[in-house]
Design brief:
- The complex is a heterodimer of chains A (470) and B (179).
- Chain A is mostly helical.
- Helix content of chain A is 68%, strand content 0%.
- Chain A is built from 21 helices and no strands.
- In chain A, helix 17 packs antiparallel against helix 18.
- Chain B is of the alpha+beta class.
- Chain B is 33% helix and 21% strand.
- The longest helix of chain B is centred in the first third of the chain and has 47 residues.
- Classes of the chains: A mainly alpha (470), B alpha+beta (179).
Chain lengths: 470, 179
């Protein structure tokens, strides 16, 4: 009786606390979106009028309010993660959906990247200019040009040809139409990634609710990733698609291998009708086909953003099957052919774009912070080489571990995280690459490491809060 | 009885020495490797945390200094303008900053600008003026566009224009030292 009462008491305060944390998350997001809608803020890029219907409630978004909202959000996020197992599934889904929708209807947050995406699309479709050869400055008279970040006006696109082609249908819609199209693409990619994260977590016997919250309520996912309509979310969708297809194939093959388990049980039930041998053969065929698609999906992610390729070696080392390699090879050949036909040789040359971007140096990167700690003004060319060497060592260690049975999803997440940490040009959305994979990884250390890196990124933004300049 | 795929795979890699053969699942007994990895990870996270905190503290000091720069410019020129351009010394990484602003109301850079070179510690919210110069409207802060240098700017020959551009407003030398 006493135990029951204590249990009831705990349930009550858990619900109350989850309610408060939910309110903080919603209020912080609303504050950023409503204040951001006013515009004239260093945190809100110059943009065509898409959120004026929200004006009237908020005030101009300053660093102070933004950082307080971001820190409150981050604190509430940690709280809701700790309570994840105690809140209902419906609550978790409703919270995730609400946060994504609030950000979707608001202005573009923090970054001008989405206007670069639109500029590249309009260069190709409206002006017949190859975005792999020229920067947006070649269409200076176009209405989107004034919104492109000034650091990027002379820079040709570094994004994959598949992403550029996906953005082409939006170009004729005008700047406002294309902007909504980009926001919708980002929302759909986010929703798709979350659905696949849920599914993969369940297949692996992990708590899908926790996985959903850790990705879908994550401050950097919601405010920076979705808020800026970044194409990184489309890359993660493809990556998670590849993982989900591989898991589905594993399930099928487990039937034939006689491996027990809940997921396998489901498949066995499905296979129960009809001749067993025929069903197993069919399962193998389906499994192989899924693995072929999985390999193709990784190449799809790479053709969105080159970083997506990271998954492939770990998938191949772990699966040691021909199907994903064939899928990847076929997709790569088709993708390269289309890219060559549409964009010429520069559309295929992802490596040179990667090399160019790798030379950038930003103030938020960890190498820059370490350089400052060591009394240096910034990173030097030799540092780039040292960082690359360190990254290669990490990848080799992870490949060896994967060959010897380590979780390939975790190895992929570690590599994506290592790329973000060793990059001299770190942006908030780079820390999202590893997040969905880390959420479904068997090695929980990679999830904690990803969250720690994100926390340090948020911490690094707080200087204007401690000493505002005006 | 057909061979299971796992067994077939095992056979395919059978020629490799045991330590090089692929495994379906990690072997037990890897505790020491995991411990070493975890230790390295924890040390790395602590190192990154120290670097981050150090950077935030440094940035806070810079912001504190820049705030004093803006107040000094406003005090010395007597103009309470918001849009001022601040430039830090990225060549020798000293704490000497240059703040430029219009000499009369207008959009940033639309009027002639007065630039002050500020150095030293922040005392009572302001810094010392070590020198300065003027810039013609719409001109970049380059030696060729600077005129009427005074203080350190004159000593280090930062001005490229020997005479005032046509139509320039009065360009008096401003007082050096702490305002």
């Amino acid at each position: 009786m006493g135990k029951e009462r204590a249990h009831e008491h705990t349930r009550h305060w858990t619900t109350a606390l989850a309610g408060v944390l939910t309110l903080v998350l919603l209020a912080a997001t609303l504050e950023i979106v409503l204040d951001g809608a006013v515009g004239h803020s260093p945190l809100i890029p110059k943009s065509p009028d898409i959120a004026s219907w929200l004006v009237g409630v908020g005030e101009r978004l300053g660093y102070r309010v933004f950082l307080i909202a971001l820190l409150s959000y981050s604190g509430a996020f940690v709280g809701i993660l700790l309570l994840a197992r105690r809140i209902s599934t419906r609550w978790a889904i409703a919270l995730t959906v609400a946060l994504q929708l609030i950000v979707f209807v608001g202005p573009v947050l923090i970054s001008t990247d989405v206007f670069s995406y639109i500029a590249y699309a309009r260069m190709g479709v409206v002006h017949a200019v190859n975005p792999y050869l020229h920067g947006p400055t070649s269409i200076a008279a176009d209405p989107v040009y004034r919104y492109v970040g000034k650091d990027w006006v002379k820079v040709a696109t570094a994004y994959g040809p598949l992403y550029t082609l996906l953005s082409y249908p939006l170009a004729p819609l005008g700047v406002v139409g294309a902007l909504w199209g980009m926001k919708l693409e980002a929302l759909a990619a986010s929703a798709g990634t979350l659905a696949l994260t849920w599914r993969c977590a369940r297949v692996r016997g992990l708590d899908p609710k926790f996985a959903l919250i850790v990705v879908g309520v994550n401050p950097l996912w919601v405010i920076y990733g979705l808020g800026g309509a970044h194409n990184d979310l489309i890359m993660t969708l493809f990556l998670m698609g590849a993982v989900a297809l591989t898991f589905a194939s594993e399930q099928r093959n487990a039937v034939a291998g006689g491996v027990s388990g809940e997921a396998v049980g489901l498949v066995t039930q499905e296979a129960g009708s009809g001749g067993l041998r025929g069903e197993i053969e069919r399962a193998f065929q389906t499994g192989s086909r899924r693995e072929t698609y999985a390999g193709a999906a990784v190449v799809g992610a790479t053709l969105i953003k080159a970083t997506g390729i990271v998954l492939l070696p770990f998938m191949l080392l772990s699966r040691r099957r021909l199907a994903p390699l064939i899928g990847a090879a076929v997709a790569a050949v088709i993708g390269a052919l289309i890219a060559y036909v549409v964009f010429g040789v520069h559309g295929v040359d992802i490596v040179s774009a990667l090399n160019r971007d790798a030379a950038f140096v930003g103030t938020d990167s960890f190498p820059t912070e370490i350089a400052h700690l060591l009394g240096k003004p910034g990173v030097f060319p030799i540092d780039h080489d040292l960082l690359k060497a360190g990254l290669v060592l990490i990848v080799l260690h992870l490949m060896w571990r994967t060959w010897r049975g380590y979780d390939w999803v975790a190895a992929s997440a570690w590599t994506l995280l290592a790329i973000a940490v060793t990059s001299t040009w770190l942006l908030a959305w780079y820390t999202l690459w590893s997040l969905p994979l880390a959420a479904i990884s068997r090695d929980r250390r990679v999830l904690y490491a990803t969250l720690a890196v994100q926390a340090l990124f948020v911490l690094h933004q707080t200087a204007p809060l401690l000493a505002p300049v005006s | 009885m057909s061979e299971s795929p796992t067994a077939a795979k095992r056979e395919a890699w059978g020629r490799l020495p045991e330590w090089a053969r692929p495994l379906e699942h990690e072997r037990r007994g890897l505790g020491s490797l995991r411990l070493a990895e975890t230790t390295i990870l924890i040390l790395l996270v602590i190192f990154l945390a120290v670097a981050t905190v150090n950077d935030v503290v440094q940035q806070t000091h810079v912001n504190h200094r820049l705030k004093a720069d803006l107040l000094t410019w406003r005090t010395v020129t007597g103009h309470d303008y918001v849009n001022l351009a601040t430039e830090q010394d990225v060549k020798t990484y000293s704490t000497r900053d240059t703040v430029c602003g219009n000499v009369s109301p207008g959009a940033p850079g639309e009027r002639a600008q007065v630039c002050l070179m500020l150095a030293g510690a922040v005392v009572s919210g302001v810094r010392s003026v070590s020198g300065g110069y003027y810039l013609a409207p719409y001109k970049a802060d380059l030696r060729a566009n600077r005129y009427k240098c005074f203080g350190l700017a004159a000593e280090t020959n930062l001005c490229g224009l020997s005479s005032l551009p046509v139509g320039s407003p009065p360009s008096p030398s401003l007082p050096l030292g702490r305002p």
